[in-house]
Amino acid sequence: MDFSDLQLSEPVLRAIADLGYTTPTPIQEQAIPFVLRGRDVLGCAQTGTGKTASFTLPMIDILAAGRAKARMPRSLILEPTRELAAQVAEAFDLYGKHCRLSKALLIGGESMADQIRVLDRGADVLIATPGRLLDVFERGYLLLNDVKILVIDEADRMLDMGFIPDVEKISTIVSRMRQTLLFSATMPPPIRRLADAFLTNPKEISVAPPATPAANVTQGLIVVHSTDGSGHGGLKEKREALRVLIKQEDVRTALIFCNRKREVGVVCRSLQRHGFDAAMLHGDMAQAARTEVLERFRRGDIRLLVCSDVAARGLDIEDLSHVFNFDVPTSPDDYIHRIGRTARAGRSGRALTIALPEDGKYVALIEKMIGNTIPRLSVEGLEAADLAAPSSRRRRQGKAKSEPKRPEAKRLEAKQTEAKRPEEKKPEARRPEEKRSEEQRSQPQPGKGVAPAKGEARRGTARPRPQREPEPPVTGMGDHVPAFMLLEIKLPKKA
Ligand code: AMP
């Protein structure tokens, strides 16, 4: 199939040709005709499949007719992170360069006044993170009743980040006379329920089995000892293993993922001390710093970017040769997303994970999900260790029950619990004083948004109590007969 078979307009086709795209990817081939026909679409697709173009290209054509009014965007795209929102905005610039469409970006960490000014001029496309969008809406600077197309992108990440109540709320505010497109890499039950609630007879498209790593990513696992004598539980050896790996491998550019923000800084500074050109990216950095570091990385000014999951989720970095997992992700979904940053658009890439023996249970979860064993590799000069079987480790340590759970493990557990929960959380407004800042929102909250956390009921996001049927007025004693009245009365025998 060719792009010209997809009924896209000439200016859009010209923009695609300028970019050198020759054939549509499977998601584009399947989604574009339905989006152009006005159908709702439920797309199960990962980043890297060409999913962004599958909704932006037809949207540009649909929006070509008509003009936006001040503060009344004609379409809305929800993204879980600022980086992804900025990336989609760039895609509109690229694909819409021969069309005259206006766009606005509403993301946290940047001047709200500037963003509102752009909205005031009228936007055909509004790309937003849910928190900032609701803030601006509640302040009265935005009307959503002219939105004709609503895109909920990366829905499963929204779930991880606790944004689903916000997404539900936005979906109820946006005009009912709209087309809705929902994309998610995986379809856990809460996302399915979201789709059932807000999509009408959607065309379901699935381009790759959920949670399957791209075939052209070569994976490897390096297990190092956790006792390094420094009292840092393997951190020193993991850093050493990382340095050796970077030298051993032919690294052009690499993302190095850590599980915690604190470690991002530690690993980055350690690499810099050893003469590597490394920088860091995590959710606690100011937005200007995040944008700048990403720009430098994209330009190739820095070769290694140490990052957290939230900051790097879905990033589309051209020709990224390697992904290193400095820590084994505690959620297998995160593993798939991390390694999916490399080997994009048909290229090949390598994804290498450094583990400690006690990471055995997390590795087992990942291998179960991908349905394969990750090949074990050894690192020059470092003694390879074995992964501990989850149960044997617990028995050996003898403290499994009292051991505090890692927050990520709790999050995973909460996620699994949510997957089993049959009920839907009702969209409800949060009180303004209880809102978290956009920055806090951008960090995964253990258990947040997946299962009601403690105190959730008080915060108003729990399900309302079911209304009782009005009962008929009771006459006499109603159905209830006091027990004593049913006792057999023994009358004294007549003499
Ligand atoms: P996405 O899944 O939207 O993040 O896209 C992944 C990458 O594939 C982006 O860098 C796009 O520029 C690129 N891409 C999207 N569609 C095509 C296509 N039809 N041919 C070649 N590259 C594409």
What does this structure look like?
This protein is α/β, with parallel strands linked by helices and 495 residues long. It has 2 domains: 204 residues, Rossmann fold (3-Layer(aba) Sandwich), CATH 3.40.50.300; 161 residues, P-loop containing nucleotide triphosphate hydrolases (Rossmann fold, 3-Layer(aba) Sandwich), CATH 3.40.50. Helix content is 38%, strand content 12%. The chain has 20 helices and 13 strands. It has a 7-stranded parallel sheet, with helices on both faces. A 6-stranded parallel sheet has the order 8-13-12-9-11-10, with helices on both faces. Helix 3 packs across helix 4. The N and C termini lie far apart (108 Å). Adenosine monophosphate (AMP) binds next to helix 3. The site of adenosine monophosphate has 14 residues, from helix 3.
Care to give the gist of this entry?
The protein is an alpha/beta fold and 495 residues long.
Describe the main β-sheet briefly: 7 strands, parallel
Q: In the CATH scheme, what's the topology name of the largest domain? A: Rossmann fold
- In CATH terms, the superfamily of the largest domain is P-loop containing nucleotide triphosphate hydrolases
CATH class term of the largest domain: Alpha Beta
What number of structural domains do the residues give? 2
Please report the total strand number as a whole number. Answer: 13
Helical segment count: 20
Q: Detail the poorly predicted runs.
A: 392-481
Broad structural category: alpha/beta
Q: List the strand order in the largest sheet.
A: 3-4-2-5-6-1-7
